[in-house]
Each structure stands twice: as C-alpha cells, then as structure tokens.
Specification:
With 486 residues, the protein is α/β, with parallel strands linked by helices. It is built from 18 helices and 19 strands. Helix 7 packs parallel to helix 8. The chain binds D-xylulose (XUL) and cobalt (II) ion.
C-alpha cells in the first residue's frame, strides 16, 4: 500500500476527484497515468514545514565587535537599560506593506524584487502563503510585533462582503501564526487611499457614499485588530487633504474628518476594543496639503473637536522632515502634550524631497528619538515600527534582514547612548541651568501668576534693565553630545 494524497485532478478535463487515501501500487500507477495527485496535507501545513529563508538562522546578538552581517551588534533584547529590557523599551515592529508587499516599483519602472514565494497573483491562497513568509521572517529576526493595513494582508473582492470574507480567511491564519510564534500585533489600520473610490479622500471626500464605505472598512478593520489582540490602531489620513482650495470646502471636510473619528471612538467602545487610537501626521504626499500636517496641527485639531482623550500620535521621521521639522521636534512636541503614542521609524534623504522611507541608520537620529522616548518613560502600548523599505537596488530577500538588523541596532545603540547621557545628566543639567532665572525671584512670581503687567513694570523700572544674558553654548553642547556618540 502506498499512502498518497486523496485528492486527484483528472488530466483530461481537470475535474477534481476524491479517492481513498491509501492505494495499492497497481491502482496508484493506473491513477497517476490519468490524474495529477494533489497531496492531502493542507497547503498551510506543508508550508509551515518549508522555509522561505533557508539561508538565514535566528538572528542573535553577538556584540559590537561582530562582523557577522546576520547578527545584532547592539540589540540584545534581554539587556537591561534604565530598569527595562531592550525588548520592552523598543517594542520593534515590522510593517507588512513595505516588507511583504513592496516589490520596489517606482514611477520609472516596475518592481524588480526577487520574492521566490510570490506566484504573481493577488489571490487569497497567495495571501495566506505570504503570512507564513512574514512570520518566518518575524521569528528569525526576533521582532516582537508587526503592523498591517487590511489591504496588505488580503486582496479586495468584487464587493465589500467578498472583501471582508477574504480578510477573515487571512486573519484566521494570522491568528494561528501569532499563536505559534508569540509575535503580536502592534497596530492595524485600514487602507483608505489605494482604491480609486478614495480619489477625493475617504472621511473628507466630497462623495458621502465614500465616507460610508470608509466607515464600513474601518469598522471591519477595528474588529479584526481586536480579534488579533492589536494594542493600537492607526489612522493615517492617506488622501485626507486637498490639491487646491478653489474646489474645496475646508470647514466641511474637517468637520467630516472629526465626525469620522468620533464614530470610530463610539464603535471602539461598543466592541470593547482597548487598543490606543493613533493619528499619524504627514504634511503632503499624496495630496498637496494633508490635513494632519504635523504634530502641532493634529493636536490643535484634536483639541478643537474634543478628541484629545481618545487619540495619541504616531510620529514618523520622514513625515517630520517633509513638514520642515526634525523628528526630535515632532516627538518633543507630541510628548509635551502627553500625546506621543508610537513611532514609525525611518528616514528621508537629504537630497530628495519626497517620502523615501529609508531604514534608519543614523545614530544621532536614534539617540534623539530615544532621549525623548526615555524622557516620557517609554512608548508602550506603542512601539517602534519600521515603516521603511529596502532600496529598489536591494532586491534580494536577504536585504530585508540586513535592513531590519541595521535599524534595530541603530535604535538599540541610540537607546544605550541616550541612557548614558541621562545617567550623567548632561542635557538635563544644561537645561536646568539655562532656565534657572525662573526658579526664584521674578521668574517664579510670573510662573505662579503672582506678577501681572503692573508689577513687572515697577520691577523693571526699579531695576533699570534686564539681567545680562548668558551664552547658549550651542557648539559646546553639540561637542558634549558627540562625546557620547560612538
Ligand atoms: C504613509 C505611511 C503609512 C502609514 C500607515 O506615508 O506612513 O504607511 O504609516 O497607513
Ligand atoms: Co507611516
């Protein structure tokens, strides 16, 4: 007896026929001349046993002297910094869209990434196989989280209900893989910008039906994020903005955006989703002017529409720089309002004016991020999501590992440097000293609201002139920072 599969496809007409699973040799030879044998093991189980990255073993910490390109030099997940493990501090996430859907296409040419597991279709079967790929990658990399858009993980169908069914089928496998590996969902989000229906935006569309469709899509995505135990949910206003104001009712669009967020808050409460809501600012691209321009614009918007209790911000480096800010500025601004929730880690290019989403490797950048993050005692339940893509020229699967290892090491080193600077109190000392005139005397009276314009005038009339200014020591401070960056 030969135990083969029990599903056969007749070669003549491709009809699928079921047979008993164990056949004797004679019958098997007869059948195989007329039928193609489809193995009985479900595709999903076969693929668990199969490796999509056969040349890569689990990435391990080998220390700063390691020359192994597939090892961490600084990210040592169990190492304790300021009383917490690096894993808890950094809460790294891999993003599904760039890492598992990005093929390297740009306006000048199609994608050229080599992804041997892709079959060129956008089928549910392919989506499920891709989940296995993603989780093998996550497991080998040792990233504790991932993030996705609904449309990254499952294809759209012909109708909303078919699309939702596709999503459910893939979510089942995502859940299975989360349980198998222990990898968790940092955040889910709905793609409200790729489909042509969103040409005028989603919540800010001039077409009310599109608002309704977007609401239905976010409702489903919230349910799915909850089902997968997501600890945050992100709103990036893909096409919520305008190209010109001649055809735009600014007030009406912003009112609609706020209505949309209030509806999301209501539904979140209704289903008992406890994840943190996050808005991700970006000033431009794809629209000329995006409504969630930068941290300041989002904080003002949330305040105006009574939404500050329900949202925090997800700050992305390349979005900060597109807005003419540094990442540190955006982080510090959100943090001072108690609204820094999570970060999308990447970087732009000094010479390019668009959202290049490169992997962060600049130690000054990661140190600055970690100074602010440590300053507010961490990001949890948020984390550090690599919203970053390998360059088109880096088209092999191994490049995905190099990119993430580099980003994780850059942040781990930034964390260690920031912690050393904090332990030595170098910057806190500088700031304390610089503002010392506010700790007593007239400064303390202004801060405690004891002095008004009249008292301030008589104080100054009596004194004659302000106390002399002290040098800001800008260059000295930059030199001190340089002492820590190694
Ligand atoms: C776009 C961007 C998005 C969001 C999620 O620039 O950053 O990928 O992070 O929608
Ligand atoms: Co992002």
């Amino acid at each position: 007896m030969i135990a083969y599969g029990n599903v056969f496809k007749r070669k003549a007409d491709n009809a699928v026929v079921l047979f008993q699973s164990s056949l004797d040799t004679g019958l098997f030879l007869f059948l195989s001349s007329k039928f193609t044998i489809i193995p009985a093991i479900p595709v999903s189980r076969r693929e668990v046993a199969m490796s999509f990255f056969p040349d890569v073993a689990k990435i391990r910490y080998e220390g700063p002297d390691s020359k192994n390109p597939l090892a961490f030099r600084h990210y040592n997940e169990a190492e304790i910094v300021e009383g917490k493990s690096m894993k808890e501090h950094l809460r790294f996430a891999v993003c599904y869209w760039h890492t598992f859907r990005g093929m390297g296409g740009d306006p000048f040419g199609p994608g050229c990434a080599v992804r041997p597991w892709e079959d060129g279709t956008d089928s549910v079967e392919m989506a499920i196989r891709r989940v296995r790929v993603a989780f093998e990658f996550l497991e080998k990399l040792g990233a504790p989280f991932y993030c996705f858009h609904d449309r990254d993980v499952a294809p759209e169908g012909k109708s909303l209900s078919e699309t939702n069914r596709n999503l459910d089928a893939v979510v089942k496998v995502l859940k299975e893989e989360q349980q198998r590996t222990g990898v968790k969902l940092l955040w889910g989000t709905a793609n409200l910008f790729s489909n042509p229906r969103y040409v005028h935006g989603a919540a800010t569309s001039c077409n009310a039906d599109v608002f309704a469709y977007a609401a239905a899509q976010v409702k489903k995505c919230l349910e799915v994020t909850k089902e997968l135990g997501g600890v945050n949910y992100v709103f990036w206003g893909g096409r919520e903005g305008y190209t010109n104001l001649y055809n735009t009712d600014l007030k009406r669009e912003l009112d609609h955006l706020a209505r949309f967020f209030h509806l999301a808050v209501e539904y979140k409460k209704k289903i008992g989703f406890t994840g943190q809501f996050l808005i991700e600012p970006k000033p431009k691209e794809p629209t000329t002017h995006q409504y969630d321009f930068d941290a300041a614009a989002v904080v003002a918007f949330l305040r105006s529409y009574g939404l500050t209790d329900h949202f925090k911000l997800n700050i992305e480096t390349n979005h900060a720089t597109l807005a003419g800010h540094t990442m540190m500025h955006e982080l510090a601004y959100a943090s001072m309002h108690g609204l820094l929730g999570s970060i999308d880690a990447n970087r732009g290019d000094l010479l390019l004016g668009w959202d290049t989403d490169q992997f962060p490797t600049d130690i000054y950048l990661t140190t600055q991020c970690m100074l602010v993050i440590l300053g507010q005692n961490g990001l949890a339940p948020g984390g550090v999501n690599f919203d970053a893509k390998v360059r088109r020229e880096s088209f092999e699967p191994i490049d995905l590992f190099h990119a993430h290892i580099g980003g994780m090491d850059a942040f781990a080193l930034g964390l260690k440097i920031a912690a050393r600077m904090r332990a030595d109190g170098v910057l806190s000392g500088v700031i304390k000293e610089r503002y010392s005139s506010w700790d007593s005397g007239i400064g303390a009276e202004i801060e405690s609201r004891k002095a008004g314009f009249e008292q301030l005038e008589s104080y100054m009339l009596q004194k004659g002139d302000a106390a002399r200014n002290v040098s800001g020591r800008q260059e000295l401070i930059e030199n001190i920072v340089n002492r820590y960056i190694q």
